[in-house]
Write a structure and sequence with these properties.
mainly beta; 12-stranded antiparallel β-barrel; 272 residues; globular; 47% strand; 7% helix
Length: 272
């Protein structure tokens, strides 16, 4: 990764924490509701976890990119809310090397994003209420920069990704389309389409969630996923921690062909 490319690409990585965003070959799109494709929503609802005992409401973390020095540090603040249908809404604000970004997403128990908007800006952003993520303004905000939309159009699940058990495997396959938003979109090309597959395996045993952050209660189960994406999209290895009490995944590391990142959680807010 070239140092000159770090500010924009690294801060976008802070908004694409869940590993499912595709940002190559962007093209224009008309505004649409912030919702899931019906077929994808059906799979997501069917796969959603049971109610969390102590839901994770907010977090702060620092993403460190190996070999990038200070320019490779991303500071992220995020808020989460589980919607009535079981999907997870997340909003984030990210900062790296003087660049800023914000995102809103609908996802599958924190493992992958199924609908994601991101935008670059010229100042920091405090995440709004994730339960009303569809009402947040992104592409037409004051001093907003380039914005993109990712939406998963097909989703197939094998196993129980939102109820992992030690030593068990599961698989996700999805098709996602990325498109440009806002006044910078121009031309008539269609958005880029990416096919991605996640082959995941849980660790043999659980461990205390406090090892990830002292405020996290109960147990966690580490899960490793190999992401294979075509054509020409980012593949790589993703490491997660399944937080049992919150029924949610937290990403802990990402290693790709030209990037290696670790995720250090500096603060978490859970329900009392």
């Amino acid at each position: 990764m070239r140092p000159s490319a770090l500010p924009r690409s690294v801060v976008l990585a802070g908004c694409c924490l869940l590993g499912a965003c595709a940002t190559d070959g962007l093209a224009p799109a008309a505004p649409v509701d912030f919702t899931l494709v019906p077929a994808v929503r059906e799979v997501a609802v069917r796969s959603a976890p049971a109610s969390a005992e102590r839901a994770l409401r907010a977090y702060a973390l620092t993403i460190h990119t190996a070999g990038a020095g200070p320019a490779g540090r991303i500071d992220v603040v995020g808020r989460q809310a589980r919607l009535p249908d079981g999907t997870l809404a997340t909003v984030t604000g990210s900062q790296a090397a003087g660049a800023f970004a914000r995102s809103r997403s609908l996802g599958l128990c924190g493992l992958v994003a199924l609908r994601l908007d991101t935008v670059l800006g010229d100042r920091s952003y405090l995440p709004g209420d994730p339960a009303h993520a569809g009402e947040l303004r992104f592409e037409d905000g004051v001093h907003a920069g380039p914005a993109t939309r990712m939406s998963v159009g097909e989703l197939h699940v094998e196993g129980a990704p939102c109820a992992p058990r030690p030593s068990q495997a599961f698989t996700l396959e999805l098709e996602a389309r990325s498109e440009a938003l806002g006044p910078e979109a121009a031309g008539g090309q269609r958005g880029a389409v990416v096919h991605a597959r996640y082959d995941c395996l849980a660790a043999p045993a659980t461990e205390p969630a406090s090892r990830l952050h002292p405020a996290l209660p109960g147990e966690m189960l580490r899960v490793a996923c190999q992401r294979t994406a075509t054509p020409g999209a980012a593949s790589g290895h993703l490491s997660y921690a399944w937080i049992a009490s919150g029924a949610v995944y937290l990403l802990t590391a990402h290693r790709g062909q030209d990037v290696a990142q670790t995720y250090v959680y500096t603060d978490v807010v859970v329900e009392p």
